[in-house]
Design goal:
Number of domains: 1
Structural class: alpha/beta
Shape: globular
Radius of gyration: 18 Å
Strand order of the largest sheet: 4-1-10-9-8-7-6-5
Oligomer: single chain
Distance between the termini: 40 Å
Helix content: 40-55%
CATH topology: TIM Barrel
CATH class: Alpha Beta
Number of strands: 10
Length: 297
């Protein structure tokens, strides 16, 4: 249903509130670069510290600015099933093309609880929905058998897999067959993920390097492994430094270095420290991908 490179958007803040002007400009920049889809209010968008009103505001702005030019997949996940239903219903009413729902965090549900959570949201809101498995954030893992059960629900159409575990990916693909699509949630392993059958990357690095990640996924779609490897190698240091501290701290710092946003974060996230910022700046200055970086600070 979706393909290529889709950006997990940062949420710009200015004086502690959403910077709508900078957010719209960032979306426009992404579309001009040829991005295949946009994800507002996800992990990279600091959804965990957005109020319900702000959460829907971010989704609304993204849909308005995109104006149907590329799909908008709204982040609507929560560790509260009722809240996930409310957010997903709001995303549908605003015109989102699909919803991306992180697996419930903190509660540490069992596999049956994860299954029931996703089923409840899917049954409550008839909108295409994508599971999001990121054990490093949630401290739970959606096992292949649970994904297979969920793949039987008609409006669960895909899974964003951020495990970087190719063995688990293959086992999940085997038990699911062609019921759902697989989207990488780990920029550093985009090439092997797509080589195994993934159809898209939901990317952090594409906030600042959309053309390079787009060239990588396009090369994989064309089965040009040599070109894809070239682009993956070009991104190695950038991918590493964008995760040198908790996401989205480094990527927002990178956007600020480019003069796109002020770089403000919501507590408990704190600004990138000087040592890490020096490392990030060096990676950006050395970057030799398809995107041209003009650092302003």
């Amino acid at each position: 249903m979706f393909h290529g490179t889709m950006t997990a958007l940062v949420t710009p803040f200015k004086h502690g509130i959403i910077d709508e002007e900078a957010f719209r400009a960032h979306i426009e920049r992404q579309i001009e670069a040829g991005i295949d889809g946009l994800i507002p209010a996800g992990t990279t968008g600091e959804a965990a510290t957005l109020s319900l009103k702000e959460h829907t505001q971010v989704i609304r702005i993204a849909i308005e600015q995109t104006a149907g030019r590329v799909p908008v997949i709204a982040g609507t996940g929560s560790n509260n099933t009722a809240e996930s239903i409310e957010l997903t219903a709001a995303a549908k009413s605003l015109g989102a093309d699909a919803a991306l729902l992180i697996s419930p965090y903190y509660n540490k549900p069992m596999q049956e609880g994860i299954y029931c959570h996703y089923r409840a949201v899917a049954e409550a809101v008839h909108l295409p929905q994508i599971l999001y498995n990121v054990p490093g954030r949630t401290h739970s893992n959606i096992l292949p058998e649970t994904v297979a059960r969920l793949s039987q629900i008609s409006n669960i159409i895909g899974v964003k897999d951020a495990t970087a575990d190719m063995d688990q990916l293959m086992r999940t693909m085997v038990v699911c067959g062609d019921k759902i699509e697989f989207y990488s949630g780990d920029d550093a392993t985009a090439l092997p993920f797509m080589a195994l059958g993934g159809v898209a990357v939901i990317s952090v690095v594409s906030n600042i390097a959309p053309r390079t990640m787009g060239a990588l996924t396009q090369a994989m779609a064309q089965r040009d492994l040599i070109a894809a490897r070239h682009h993956q190698v070009a991104l190695v240091e950038l991918n590493r430094t964008l995760f040198i501290r908790s996401n989205p701290i480094p990527v927002k710092a990178a956007c600020a270095l480019l003069g796109w946003i002020e770089g403000g974060l919501r507590l408990p996230l704190t600004p990138l420290d000087n040592e890490a910022c020096t490392e990030l700046r060096a990676a950006m200055q050395a970057f030799a991908g398809e995107d041209a970086f003009h650092l302003v600070s």
